[in-house]
Amino acid sequence: MAFFTPPGPCDTIRPMKNLAGALLALTLLAGASAQDKKDRGKTPELTKKYAAFMKSNGAEMKGILEDIEKDKPESDIKKRLARIKENIAKARELKYRKDEEEQEKLDGLFDVFEFKLKQDFDGVEWGDKEKRKFLHERLQAKCDVCHELLRD
Ligand code: HEC
After folding, report:
1. Which residues, 6+ apart, have CB-to-CB distance to 93 below 8 Å?
2. With a 6 A CB cut-off, is 26 part of the ligand 1 pocket?
3. 121 C-alpha to ligand 1 centroid (Å)
4. Structural domain count of the chain
5. Structural domain for 51, as ranges
6. pLDDT digits (tens, 9 = 90+) for 100-150
């Protein structure tokens, strides 16, 4: 059966809607983290360290959105992206999960994230406002892949 599949948000650029969605996602993210007291790390300290890198990622993602709104130079956004890359590398090094199987999954998802980041963002121009919003959303989607599997 051939249904017509409407283009997803990655194909169509609907700036206002996308931005509202991104802001909502950030709000939900912030709310969820406050309640996240799951004891999944080898030690509470390790989990705390891991969460701190992730929190910084959240702040940088929000910062990118603000930079886009304020038409900041592309170099500002790239700096934030570089920070995210650093945070991801450091977070993965911690190998914080106590469950071995979960840790293996986490490693695999970090591989995917780092590969995708390289593939989609290395040497890519952030361009005009519309393209910037599109890229921000695309980046957030990559964060969410891992969160859906290993955070919630
Ligand atoms: C490979 C997996 C993975 C990737 C990629 C990832 N995260 Fe996370 N993130 C996690 C896990 C797991 C947690 C939950 C940590 C815990 O409490 O056990 C988390 C937690 C968080 C938190 C909550 C931190 C807190 O306060 O407890 C934020 C915010 C966050 N991530 C943002 C991001 C952003 C933004 C990106 C993308 C730039 C990202 N993450 C990419 C796995 C990932």
Report:
1. none
2. no
3. 19
4. 1
5. 41-150
6. 999 999 999 999 999 999 999 999 999 999 999 999 999 999 999 999 999
